Amino acid sequence: MELARRALALLGVLLILASLGTPVSGWQAAQNGITDVELTGPAAVTEQDGSTFVWKDEPFNLSVSFLGEENQAYGVCTYRYQNGNQSHRIGCTDTTAQNATVTFPVGSWPVNETGPQTVQVVLTTGDGTATDLRTESVTVIEKEGDLDGDGLTNREEVKRDLNMTNADMDKDGLGDGAEVKNYGTGPTKADTDGDGLRDGLELQLGTDPGDGSTVAKLSAGGLLLGVGLVAAWVLLRRRRGGAERTADPAETTGESADEPLLTDDQRVIQLLEENGGRMKQAAIVDETEWSKAKVSRLLSDMVDEGRIEKLSIGRENIIHLEGHGPEAAKPPYSE
Prior knowledge:
18% of the residues are buried. The protein has 335 residues and is of the alpha+beta class. Residues 20-30 and 249-257 have low confidence and may be disordered. It has three domains: 29-141, Sandwich (Immunoglobulin-like), CATH 2.60.40; 154-214, no CATH class; 264-329, Orthogonal Bundle (Arc Repressor Mutant, subunit A), CATH 1.10.10.10. It has helices spanning 2-19, 154-159, 176-183, 199-205, 214-244, 249-253, 264-274, 281-288, 292-304; strands at residues 33-40, 44-48, 51-55, 60-67, 74-82, 85-95, 99-106, 115-125, 130-141, 278-280, 309-313, 316-320. The strands form three sheets. Strands 2-3-9-8-5-6 form a six-stranded mixed beta sheet, with no helix packed on it. A three-stranded antiparallel beta sheet has the order 1-4-7, with no helix packed on it. A three-stranded antiparallel beta sheet has the order 10-12-11.
């Protein structure tokens, strides 16, 4: 019984250690194979969009790390692929180390090989059996090239810590090159002056994307415009009102304060008396500013009541008081 209890206790300890990730003698703590592939040196520029960017005319080191079994010989070979085809073997080396990092120095990439490429690493045992394979994306670029066509060279974008494959990093409607060279705005800040308007929108509005007072100026301008429109409307109303009113001598002399309002038919009679007893119907429309339909109905009613007379000459209607009709309308031998 005592032996059984000790065995169970040991098993419990082993299970706890295993759950905590603690290596136990005789157990493999990590899986064998390639653990890391890294490009370093002057040529290695940056990592963007899952690819390592390297200058084509600069040297670099390709380092490969791996885990293996004790007393086992390994071979590490590296290759360069372009467009899916193997273009060059970078290097191969043998080692018996269980946990090793091997480095392959590379002078530079071939002059005629630029753009997206692939580095392949193959780990084999001593008898040539492949045990692991790793591929890494590499983009070979020229310093004076312009990958994204934004007007900044690749060298300038690296110096400014910009993305060489994104022409408008802040998505403000302006290319990174234009922001740096033409407008002095920040290619990684959509609203350089912090006024709430994107840099590209400010240029469309004709404002300065570097002036943080733009919104305040636009607001003030809009307020002044609104006040001006209201003032113009009030002035226009006053002028129209003055034109519609006929000057009354009694008002100017102070003899009378208020004039009684005229009915529509009285207004028509007054107009006829002021114009020699007759007017064209179109002139009555213009003087009263009533609609043509209203004037036509009113005049028809007044004709029916015998208060005025209407004579059609061609396409015009002549409205007149009794005895004031056109001479052409009098019947022959009426004298």
